[in-house]
Amino acid sequence: IINTDGSGNRQAFPDVATDGAGHFTVVWVDWRNGQYPTNPDIYARKYDTLLVPISAEIKMNKDVIQRAQREPVISADRMGNVAVIWSDSTATSWDIVGQMIDVSGVVRETNFRANAEGDSAQLQADVALDGRFRYITWADKRNGNWDIFASITKYNDPTLVASQTSMKFEMNRQGSLPEGQFVTVEHAGYNPLGYEVISSVAWCQVTPASGTTPEQLEIKVIDSTLAGGTHLGELTLIDKINNDSSVTIALRCDVLAPRLGLSADTITIKGFSTVGDPETTLFDVQNLTNGTIVWTSTVDQDWISLSPASGNQPTAVSVTVDPANLPAGVHTAKIIIDAGNIDDSPDSLYVLFDVVENLPYLSVEPDSIYFQTTDPANEIRTLSISNLGVGTLSWTADINASWLIADQISGTGNGQINLTIDSSAYPLGRYSGSVIVTDSSSFNKSVAVPFVMQVLTEIDTITIEPATLSFNTTIGLPINIALNNSARLISLPLAIDTTLLTIDSVLFDPALTAWATTSYDYDSLNNTLTIIATAIADSIPTDDYLLAEVVVTSGSNNGETTLAPPPLSSGVFVETMSSDIIYPEFISGTIRVDSPTDVETDPVNNTPQRWSLAQNYPNPFNGVTKIPFSLPEKSTVTIEIFNILGQKVSTLSHGQFPAGEHTVSWDGRFSTGSEAATGIYFYRLTSDSFSRVRKMILLK
What we know:
The protein is an all-beta fold. 1% of the residues lie in helices and 55% in strands. β28 and β29 form a beta hairpin. It is elongated. About 1% of the residues have low confidence.
């Protein structure tokens, strides 16, 4: 029994269709929802060839007002899709109405109407399907008598759809293969489609090469021997049901084949033998196409050197030749650049080094002049001109600054030029010019000397006072700056003699931190401490500041040192608001580390004879520690606690103390009330005429 309704209601007028997918579908008129002869519906069900149901019974008409349906007909296409058509009551007439069921027994659309005319009777429909179009005919009474009408409607679009229409790969010639890429093959329309993929090129592999939609395909380049250049191909997706090959995917594989190039094949350099100064020029290692290159170099003469001598990209190479120990004449060297297995590799160029010795050689000292001044009219600078070669110089000087005056502008043989500034009033700022000394018959023709003058109201001064430490003593070394020019940045690098001193921390004065962000960095590899102050807003105003207090601990070695900029650093400098760089005067006192000596005492008077800040006790401590200090006179004293980063965490005392011995206590809490963590802390005593720092350890 096809129908599963067991209520005893009537079913009649069956029709059946078979499809190309091995199914058959039955359609009939069914009165299960009404009482015969009223309210018949159209039902359908799909089966396989063993009469196993593929779908449940389906009510085909979707009307909700219980009108009558009659004369069902059915047709199936080769892909398993079914059209069910019937005459459907409109209360006053009949329409031709239908529904589609796909190969899986799923209803695909709402009810559709085949006839466009709705005010006359349409009956006795029939239908045929071809996989794309639905053909419907019926008897139609719109013209008074009965005519035969037809409609043709596209219901399905069984075509393949690829998620990409093109794919691009990139690889190095004879390098590793590129990673595979993926494309999804879908189907438009009702039904999955069988497909096959055909590649027009042998260097491309598709997995899987055939199957049923939907499917994900992996596209890979499989040939590592492809020549350099662009390789094109195409994948064709064939619909095996409809034999449609209109869907294609364009393929492109760019094989990057780098080609070595050098910017020159010969370089000529002139050098002077008796001076022996190295001469330098450049050439370029180039990649004339695409891809990457990794190159190395060799030279066949020891008087030539390259920088860099190898690389993994195109670059400019500096060629330095040294005339020392070379006789006069033309010397030849060969440079070979090897980039491995790429086009035009290896390549070479020749260096022709023309060493001469029978010409004058113009030398001007110093090679540059820079100075800061508050009174330009009283400044004088001297250039010394000499001949490092043979023969006699005949030189002229060109002064490229209207405010710069030379006492002579030409001469023969060795000589000097005294440079002064004219007596005009000069606004504050930087003034730049140059002096070019020329002898066209000399080897080097001319020498240019830059001349820079910085006019200031006053010159900034940084001072580190002298200090003496006993062995294993912690002290704060104050660094003061007299800032006479408002600044954007202050930078102070200091070399540390680690045989005598250990850097513990750097403390900063609130008077400076109100205007600047302060920081320090200790480079333990080069034993260099750099202190930085950067303006928070517009500038650090002119004033006298405690720039920093460097907390150091002495060792057990006698010796003397100074805190000063390292020899190879850019030195201490101040950047002004106009971005000018000025160099303060730097005064560093001697730091002496010596063995302990007895403390002087007054046998009659118990008043301390000098200021002192003793070591806290107990130390290390857990809980409370006491900090003793001595005052030779009544003083206003501040005692503060700092962490290892130089940040103030508590103020223990601030006020007047009489002369004598005193003690304050710290309970290991910050000024906020929270407990301090285990670690190293510093306590500092400051007064109008004394400042000292010591180190203590809190252990919990």
